[in-house]
Amino acid sequence: MQQRRAYSQAQATQPIRVRQYPPPQQPRIPVPMPRRPAPPPQPQGYRPPQPVPYTNAYPRPAQPPRKAKASNKRFYMWLAAGAAAFVLMSCAALTLGVGFIYSRGILPGVSAGGISLGRLSQDEAAQKLAIEWNTLQVTDGQRAWRYNASDLGITLDAKATAQEAYDQGRGNLANLFGALIGRVDTEPIINIDTAVLQNTLTTNADQFSQAPVNAGVKLDNGQVMTTPPQNGRSLDVAATMTRLQQDSGSILADGRLELVMQAVAPAMSDASPMVEQARHLLSSPLDIRIFDPITGDSVYWSAQPDQWANWLSADSDPASPTGLVLTANDAPVRAYLTAQSGVLDSTRYLDFDEAVTNVQQAIREGRTNPYARVYHHDSQYVVQPGDTITSIAWDVGQPYLYIQQANGGINGVSVGQSITIPSPDNYLPYTVNPDKRIVVSISQQRTQVFENGSLKWDWAASTGISDSPTWPGIYQVISHEPNAYAGNWDLWMPHFMGVYQPIPGADFTNGFHGFPTRGGWQLLWTNSLGTKVTYGCILLSNDNAELLYNWAEEGVVVEIQP
Predict the structure, then answer these.
(1) Homologous superfamily of domain range 379-422
(2) Per-residue model confidence as pLDDT tens digits over 124-164
């Protein structure tokens, strides 16, 4: 350590040399380079010598192709044989393994009739099929419905189908992997009662069918234009049954029955002759009058031209000069009425078939003012203190015997009891005329006749005595007899118009008539108008009874007020 330190001190006494970096540049002295002499001139046409390609003076003889060694060939043969043996042994092992693991159960990827049966025993699979394979999806390729298989006459052999499902993948290597990791559908084993199947398909053919659409018109930017026709479809019952009988298992393998449908051409393929008529109709809204004959009220549902123009189509009409007439397609009219009917309360409803027909008929006649009648459901009444069947019937406006009949023939009621009040529509069997109405007031002993909302006639009248009263309610004119006979009282009644039957099912009717006669000569009640003198009918003078008889067709509503 002392020597090293002395050396360092010695070094410290030496002068420090400073090296310049980079070293200073020395001046360069140019050195002349010798030039290569130019080649001597060559005579004209001179060509320099060309190099000679190498050739083997002694060519090597061709050698025959070498033969593969026999040992290599045998090696590859043994290799292929070993691979095949390995595959076979693997498959055999896999088959034995699967058979051992699922010796009593169905392979996991197996189903039948659209129902998964994997890992179930045959008994469990048969039970599951019997429970779940009771409905089928019936489809026309576009729509689908659910049906009980028994309603179609189709029954499943659950036990045999479960056996078929169990056999999937066993003894058939091609199905093994699908049954293990994929999906294998087993065709169900079924029996078909052809009579039941044919009856069900025939009965429900309308449900499966789609009506064709005739050529029609539409309103496009205020211009009436024609629309093309559309084919419909109908169920081919015979073809559906034949197809099902030929291969029922395959067709029903997924739990679906596909119907055979056939095209139906529309009757009218050109609506151009209807354009002018459509222009006239579409100049105003379609005002559908919704009329309640019980209350006598009307509301109007108005469809604007650009909306209901798309409902129109052409139809044949031999009475028309062109052989065609405009009408409305069922589906859009029904959809419109259904949407609008949401404003009705729960006690009232529309008969959509009737309402659609009324709209179509109005358009065929060139009118834009169709009407639809409101109907009423049965209702419930809770008995109050002091109520009797008779008093309830008087208050709700129905003959009491009908209320008794609707409640099982009861003779009395108790407070808090709920009884059924039949729909008042039961007394309106005919088509209603919304523009005519007859109103009878028992308390005022008068009859008023209304037409188009205006009072036409106002007459004195006589109703039934207390022992045989005229019953309040909403009824209709149901019959016309020039001179009816009442056997109970030996009366002949001129210009008789029946209104209601006070006894259900009896051939006995109360209604309007003129002054009656007894015995063919005795004229009764000529001075009694304005008082209760009849046995339930409404008495008018002979002249007024004749006027009303000729004015009121069957179906005119008669409102009898208490």
Answers:
(1) LysM domain (3.10.350.10)
(2) 888 888 888 788 889 998 999 999 888 988 888 888 888 88
**Residues 272-372, CATH architecture:** Roll (3.10)
Residues 6+ apart with CB under 8 A from 198: 237, 241
Average per-residue pLDDT in the chain?
84
Distance, CA of 490 to CA of 127 (rounded, Å) = 75
Highest mean pLDDT among 25-34, 35-44, 237-246, 528-537: 528-537
Three-state secondary-structure class, residue 396? helix
Greatest CA span in the chain, whole angstroms? Answer: 178
Residue 184: band (very low, low, confident or very high) from pLDDT cuts 50, 70, 90: confident
- How many Cα atoms are found within 13 Å in the side-chain-facing hemisphere of 248? 19
DSSP 27: P
pLDDT in tens, 25-42: 555 555 555 555 556 666
At 467-517, the pLDDT tens digits run: 999 999 999 999 999 999 998 889 999 999 999 999 998 888 999 999 999
Write down the pLDDT at residue 488. 85
Q: pTM higher than 0.85, yes or no?
A: no
For 359, phi and psi rounded to 5 degrees? -65, -45
Q: How far apart are the first and last CA of the chain?
A: 144
* Backbone dihedral angles phi then psi of residue 206, each to the nearest 5 degrees: -65, -35
Tokens describing residue 108? 């996991």
Q: Which one is the CATH code of 431-561: 2.40.440.10, 3.30.450.40, 3.40.1010.20, 3.40.1190.10?
A: 2.40.440.10
Q: Structural domain boundaries of the chain?
A: 272-372, 379-422, 431-561
The CB-based long-range contact list for 93-100 (8 Å cut-off, 24+ gap) reads: 94/176, 95/173, 95/176, 98/169, 98/176, 98/180, 99/170
